[in-house]
Amino acid sequence: MSSMTGAFERAGLLLQRDDGALSIQVLQEFYTEATRATRPHRLTHDMAAGLVKAWTRFRVQEMTLAVLESALEICAAHRFSYWDSAVVAAARALGCRELYTEDMSHGREVEGVMIVNPFR
Q: What parts of the chain have a pLDDT lower than 70?
């Protein structure tokens, strides 16, 4: 099995779980990147919007003042980008113990949230 096939399978398994949660920022970033004009094999608006709608079956953390303030604290304390800090802050607000991402340091614990790269 190729590494790409394995990654797709692992992603599919995560999306089948019932205990998932997402931040509104992650949904926005997915839509923006998936439909970007310069992206090879980009998705149409309808395809990307359909996926976003399907993923709202998970708990979704909206951006609130409390999440923003938490993100700013995480940014200062851990030297993450604001955007990564906002994802961690949303995970904390949702009560998540793990945050699945390939964009941050696997195995690092941040404010009680363990960063896990599901593709490692």
A: 1-5
CATH of domain 3-116: 3.40.50.1010
Strands 59-61 and 21-23: parallel
SS3 percent helix, strand, coil of the chain, rounded to 5, is: 50, 10, 35
Say if residues 90 and 59 touch (Cβ distance below 8 Å).
no
- Residue with the two structure tokens 């945050």: 99
Dump pLDDT digits (tens) for 37-72. 999 999 999 999 999 999 999 999 999 999 999 999
Instruction: Give the span between the Cα atoms of 88 and 83, in whole angstroms.
Output: 9
Element (H, E) at 73: helix 65-78
Q: Half-sphere exposure of residue 96, counting CA atoms within 13 Å on the CB side?
A: 26
The ranges assigned to domains in the chain are 3-116
- What residues contact residue 72 under an 8 Å CB cut-off, 6+ apart? 82, 85
